[in-house]
Structures are given as C-alpha cells and as structure tokens.
Amino acid sequence: xPNDDTPTQEVSTGGCLCGxxxxxxxxxxxxxxxxACPHCARLSGGPLMAWVGFRRTAFSWTGxxxxxxxxxxxxxxxxxxxxxxxxxxxxxxxxxxxxICVSALDNGSEITPVGHSFRHxxxxxxxxxxxxxxxx
Length: 136
Hints:
The protein has one helix at residues 38-44, and strands at 11-15, 22-26, 30-35, 49-55, 59-61, 68-73, 76-80, 87-92, 97-101, 116-117. It is mostly beta strands and 136 residues long. The strands form two sheets. Strands 6-7-8-9-4-3-10 form a seven-stranded mixed beta sheet. Strands 1-2-5 form a three-stranded antiparallel beta sheet, with no helix packed on it.
C-alpha cells in the first residue's frame, strides 16, 4: 500500500517539433531564465532564448530518436533534433544541471523566467525581462 506521506516528484516532458526526440525530467525546474547572448540569439532565430535547468541525474532522452550533439564551446554541448532541427538543450561539462529550451517543454507556457542573462544584448525594441530574484 503506498504511503500517503511520500512526496510526488514533478515530471516535465518535452520534445522536438516532429516528435523524433522526446525527453523526461523528474524534479523541480531550476533557474528558468532568458538569455540574449549571441549564441542563444542565433540558435533561437530570435533576440533571446528561454532556458530552464534540471538535474542531469533526473533527466533522460526517451526516444524514439537520439538528439544531435554540437559543441559550441570546448566545454559546452548543445542538442537538437537531427530531423527537424528543433533546439532542445545544452550542458557544460561537469555541471550538475543541464539546460532545456523552454520551447521544447510540453508545459513551457507554465514556466516563468526569474532572470535575464546578457541584458545588454537585448534589442531596444524588446524590454529586458525584469529579474524576479530577491536582491542580495
């Protein structure tokens, strides 16, 4: 009989546009934010990209396909679908967390950014996302 005091783990799912790549992450999303660095702008095809982190140990690619990997820096790997080219995520070597593109999540519209990286790169016509983090 299940113990009613056992907390349920939040499960986030997602994938690419064509359905070739699917993934699952268990646990609370970490540090949702937008980034306007030159890499994110080029990868997204827009002025910024939205990211959310998950622990590597709680993340898995569930298929049916395997993502394509690209090393955008010597210590940074990025993933996309080899069929439809949807950006899926990225991780720095050795980091406990990996970043998943909010646009690749099935529930991405429920994610609220808490910060804005590379604000100075944001085009003037798009106001920076204000940080929702408490000031130090």
